[in-house]
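ASSEMBLY PREDICTION REQUEST
Request ID: AP-0331
Submitted by: J.K., bench scientist
Number of chains: two
Total residues: 220
Priority: normal
Notes: Please return the full assembly, not individual chains.
Input sequences:
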Amino acid sequence: GIQVEQSPPDLILQEGANSTLRCNFSDSVNNLQWFHQNPWGQLINLFYIPSGTKQNGRLSATTVATERYSLLYISSSQTTDSGVYFCAVGSGGSYIPTFGRGTSLIVHP
Amino acid sequence: ETGVTQSPTHLIKTRGQQVTLRCSSQSGHNTVSWYQQALGQGPQFIFQYYREEENGRGNFPPRFSGLQFPNYSSELNVNALELDDSALYLCASGQGGDIQYFGAGTRLSVL
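STATUS: Completed
Returned structure:
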């Protein structure tokens, strides 16, 4: 099956700093989502982005499908950005996503 | 708020017992998927239901089974619980499966 690797595994920032999270995948995809999992376990959709670039406030994401990677940018980080960020990809006709192991982000005040 | 609710939030069972977890999807969503998330790992796909029929299954044994009902609710049943079944169980719903919306999960502990 498709392999998904996320980097870095852990990230510690001061409030206000910027960061880039990376998701590499081993095969062509037709679906890609970024999620934020808060400390209580809730997975929140950030972006549905199988290709191209999207922005939502301080967050933006870019997927370069031909090179098999996606990037999530967090600018001016806040303590509420803390949690685990997951990339999930799907290929083929049915969207059965494969998740990476996530990037654990801690933002200190 | 994703509109997907799961119950119970926490559950403690002993090895060998059976458990039923419940999920209420958003109105209009015709797919529901269940995931198992072990500590420190990403969610692992268990199975997906589309219009009340199983539509795909991950690498989980038959003692993991499910149901989807016409009223946008669904169940995950696990028989003969093992210690390794301890995990966060997540339900996700969607329309056509491309974008999935997750509930807050049920944390199952097997002793």
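REVIEWER COMMENTS: The two ends of chain A are 40 Å apart (CA to CA).
SIGN-OFF: pending second reviewer
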